[in-house]
Design goal:
It is a single chain. The longest helix has 26 residues. This protein is mainly β. A hairpin with a 2-residue loop joins strand 7 and strand 8. Strands 7-8-9-10-11-1-2-3-4-5-6-12 form a twelve-stranded mixed sheet, with no helix packed on it. The chain has a two-stranded antiparallel ribbon with strand order 13-14. The protein has two helices and 14 strands, in the order H-E-E-E-E-E-E-E-E-E-E-E-H-E-E-E. It folds into two domains: about 30 residues; about 170 residues, Clam (outer membrane lipoprotein receptor (LolB), chain A). Keywords: Signal. InterPro entries: At4g14100-like.
Amino acid sequence: MKNIRVLVILLFVVVASTLLLIWSAESVPTPTPWPQQFHSLLFVNYNGSLSLIDLWYDWTNGRNFNIIQDQLGKLLYDLEWNNGTIYRYTLDDKKKCSVAQIDVGVLPPNWLHGAAYLGQELFDGFLCNVWQKVDFVWYYEDVVTKRPVHWIFYTGRSIHVMTFEVGAVLEDAKWQAPVYCFESKQVKDRTASDNSIMAIGSDGFLREFI
């Protein structure tokens, strides 16, 4: 009788431990995938150097557009396509343009898959879930709305999300790089191991100012 009682207790402990492990695994938050298309205004602080980014993310059409305004500086257009082509240009009288070809495409919506959960933190006035991705970026998401609030790169470049418009799409005509980008032959091949870029799986990349 005593042995049966011990066996029942041991069985109860095993079952309870298993259920606790299952509950713990299910209760760990996972990052919300990005919408297929969105528009966002980002405030960037990189060791005191400030800039604003007008971000148009369009996974549906395989493209991503960063319009970057440095504080009291130039306005830079950074246009990325899913074939790995990146156009960086100005629209002023200088008509500067550089073209790069890398071996990965636009960052996919689920680029945070597999990120390590670090817990919750109050940031910019929002209670956020926080994840870390491959020692490259720390990502903050609002617990209530599931919208991104902030992310920071290992270099200290800090991105604050000011607006987040799900479903907003920039008209097609605005995605066309200027003609002088195609007149230049200065196309540079870059790999995903560049210091300013991080491969996220084999489907996309994350650069620091994104």
